[in-house]
Write a structure and sequence with these properties.
The complex is a heterodimer of chains A (328) and B (307). Chain A has 14 helices and no strands. Chain A is mainly alpha-helical and 328 residues long. The longest helix of chain A has 35 residues. Chain B has two domains: 124 residues, Nitrogenase molybdenum iron protein domain (Rossmann fold, 3-Layer(aba) Sandwich); 127 residues, 3-Layer(aba) Sandwich (Rossmann fold). Chain B has twelve helices and 13 strands. In chain B, α4 links the parallel β6 and β7. Classes of the chains: A mainly alpha (328), B alpha/beta (307).
Chain lengths: 328, 307
Amino acid sequence: MRTLGVLAFLAVALVVSAAAGILIGAVAIGPGDVLAALFGSNDVSGTIIRELRLPRVLGAALVGGSLATAGALLQGLLRNPLADPFVTGTSAGATLAAVAAIVLGLAAPLVPLAAFAGALVTVTLVWRLARLGGGTTVLTVLLAGVVLTSFAGAVVTFLLVSSDRLALQLRAVLGWLQGGVSVISWPELGVAAIVVALGLIFALVLAHRVDAYAFGEETAATLGVDPDRTTTAVLGATALLSGAAVALAGLVGFVGLVIPHALRFVIGATHRRLVPASFLAGAAALVLADLGARTVIAPAELPIGAITGLIGAPFFLALLVRSRRIVV
Amino acid sequence: MRSRFVTLLAVLLLTLAACGGAVSVTPSPSVTASPFPAALTDFQNRSVTVPARPERLVSIGPSITAFLFALGAGPRVVGVDDFSDEPAEAATREHVGGIKVNFEKVVALKPDLVFSVKFSDGTIEKLQAASLNVLVVDPQSVFDVAKTATLLGKAVGADGEALAQSIQQRVDAVKTKTATVATRPRVYHEIDASDPAKIFTVGPGSYINDLIDIAGGVNIAARAASAYPQLSAEEILRSDPEIIVLAADAYSAKPADVAARQGWSVIAAVKNGRIFSIEPNLINRPGPRVGEAAEAYAKLVHPELFR
């Protein structure tokens, strides 16, 4: 009952933040005009709402929701409170592919595709490495993820330093590294929504298996959960979710780490509840963070990562101090 | 094009000489007192004394280099920064670094006068610590260009006033042309949008803002808070620029890219296909070609004046 209440509250919070995100922006547009714009008025306000603000708000919701869901799954699977959606190397792989695409001068729409592919390739590599000894163990997943992240980071640094062409594209790369949902096109959004929906369905189906991991892989096996297949399936779901998020918005930190933890304080560690709650809360949080990013120093924009870190870190510490422990 | 420019310049110079003869007695070189030692005040309000006609010049700043050659001091320039490529001959001089100055190279060239743009990392102080005579010259606006010509003329013992006047006349010629236009189109000049969340344009106090004004346009960011402000895409759409200008270098967006941006199809400039690229050196360097720059910009904003 309490869970239903929390879920309903989060859903309302998401709708309210989305409404705020559409109503408020760099250019002041009255609520009446916003409504008219949503239903197809053809003036400049209409274009600003339909082509700039609406895809941006929906994009932020998708990114925040996927990151928080992936974070919840990975923290459960790896039994590690520090796990975030990027612990399996997705961020590093996506960044490497995106930077390489920029260096090679690929057309802008290809950069997110490259990032998505980079994220999937890295997770596959991590999974292959973790299977070297036969079965997949979560400890090797973690280690392989950390090692691949360092390696990809080193290659990115090398590319950044050695490429002259890139020296002048540095702001494009920096924008990517800081994360942001500023300009998302409708086709991009559509493709990402399908990928995220798939990932979310997987996550909901897999949630009860992750719960069995709370006492370790051996216990999970005695509970009738095949650890090998479960690990593979969870990695696949998180790869879809975080890959789509990275492709849309670059590296947005903190949401995937903080949101699931914060929710565990409220509704407990059961993943069947945690997964849907994380999606709704992550979506609402990132829509609000993006609203902050584009209004705090308007007309200039802050990187969204600065907002999530600035508000997320103290919020998280306050929760930590109140409970004096982290429930995983 | 080039020959027209040369003709125009020749006409201007002749007019100038005639005017000079009519209103004042031009002193002959033999009776002119030597301009040295020259006491100068540079762009950082530092007092600099040039004791004798300098014979070995180092220029750190592409527009300074262009001025020195325009003043006829090119043969005395022994070193330039890595970006100095105007005129082409300048690039043949010894290179002394770009964003980071190579102090050893500067000292090894034994210059008796070093010209440099402003640096915030202590470069000027380090050059002085190496016992070099440094004059800071950093033109940022169209107004600064004439001031630069005069100052550099005094520093190297050349007729900077004449150069300043010929530049000013060419700028004034464009101003005269655009003074009577019926409408002043709204102009958006893009500096950098490689990060789509952070679009940079030109604001008041910048060289390009001056050029837009002289060209008979209205900068959509003319009332921004800084010389290089950041704009959101929403504001650009709302301002509805009639002309969009980009730099024609490898790193800037192309007109087709700009037209294809999400939502930008409602902008008048995009609808009417008035998105242009302009030679980057011309608009990025407040140098002796400022008249040419103003004219090139005016041709984009008011093509009807140049038919």
